[in-house]
Amino acid sequence: MLSPSDFIPKNYSKTVENGSFQWSAPSNIALVKYWGKKEHQIPANPSISFTLKNCKTITNLSFSKIEKTDNFSFDLLFEGKPKEAFRPKIQKFLERVEVYLPFLKDYHFTIDTQNTFPHSSGIASSASGMAALAVNFMSLEKELNPEMTKDYFNQKASFLARLGSGSACRSIKGEVVIWGNHQQTENSSDLFGIEFSELHPNFKNYQDTILLVDKGEKQVSSTLGHDLMNGHPYAEKRFEQAHHNLSEIKSILTKGDVVEFVKLVESEALTLHSMMMTSMPYFILMKPNTLEIINKIWRFRQETAIQVCFTLDAGANVHVLYPANVCEEVLQFIKNELVVHCQNEQYICDEIGKGAQLIMDN
Ligand code: PMV
Questions:
Q1: Looking at ligand 1, which atom is closest to the CA of residue 28?
Q2: pTM of the shown model
Q3: Is the CB of 124 under 6 A from ligand 1?
Q4: Contact 92/129 with Cβ under 8 angstroms?
Q5: Which protein residue has the closest C-alpha to ligand 1 atom 14?
Q6: I want to staple 176 with a disulfide (CB 3.0 to 4.6 A). Which of 170, 196, 201, 316 is the partner?
Q7: CATH code of the domain containing 326
Q8: Torsion of CA 91, 95, 99, 100, to 10 degrees
Q9: 171 alpha carbon to ligand 1 midpoint, in Å?
Q10: What is the mean pLDDT of each run of 10 residues along the chain (362 residues)?
Q11: Ligand 1: distance of its center to the CA of 327 in Å?
């Protein structure tokens, strides 16, 4: 089993003066949810997610060698313009990963980032953002150590992304990623995400239409939410259930059982929100429109037998999941009945994707 020290490089065989990379990394949506963490971004339970395709962050990293300094030297741009508000988050990330990327203080970096989804849409950009940054730094490390294997690159990118934002470690690869030690999953790790490679064709190109119910700032950050699982009265049972549900969903995804998928995924979403409602302090992130949408999905499924279901992340938005072959019917239903419950009738059509992509290498 790998330990964090396995990601500390011994020495580099090359030197590099300057250059730039551009990577995109997608968001992901958990099917079995991660909620609760230990120190150093170690999850309290294992999780599994669909990697998305269209909701992504594109990050350009330029670097030029400088005299080693005491502080990190970087400029931060969002959509080409300076964005001081993002600095503390990046500073914290660099501090956390410095031991694993010992070259960080040898360069001045310009980090220029943009998202394909609307700003403050309630879609967390931290997963895609941290994953995009991690793969860029790995590209630089690969220049310094060209012998690096592809597997090590991906594992370490996921490991670094996790230190930025837990679920970001599931955004490096596609189409389905498992993160967290799980007895029934070979090579699973709390330190990074691994690909689940037995996806049945029924789940190929699975659709995720994200209904933007509430685009406002989250009332409770996920960091605080995770903390509230410490000492939560139902925590141990929940963590046990997540292990069990992960075994179940792996079998569902392998067999292509879309009916059982619906039950497990909806139950996970509601369990996540039940944990929030039963913590102390308690809180509710769903909005009246979230419930309207859930009820309409249930009615539509009952009437049509089309296996469409919902999941939720830590917010009011609803992810509508369905097989690609019922796309037309479901999109019509969404337009006719669900968009009225979205803020400014906004929604985003997404589907399962393949993970981070290198766009440019100079
Ligand atoms: O990665 P974080 O700390 O933003 O937590 C993500 C938590 C959920 O989205 C609610 C669940 C998950 O597994 O992604």
A1: 14
A2: 0.97
A3: yes
A4: no
A5: 30
A6: 196
A7: 3.30.70.890
A8: -40
A9: 12
A10: 94 95 98 97 98 97 94 95 92 98 97 87 82 98 97 98 97 98 98 97 96 82 94 98 98 98 98 98 96 98 98 96 97 98 96 97 85
A11: 27
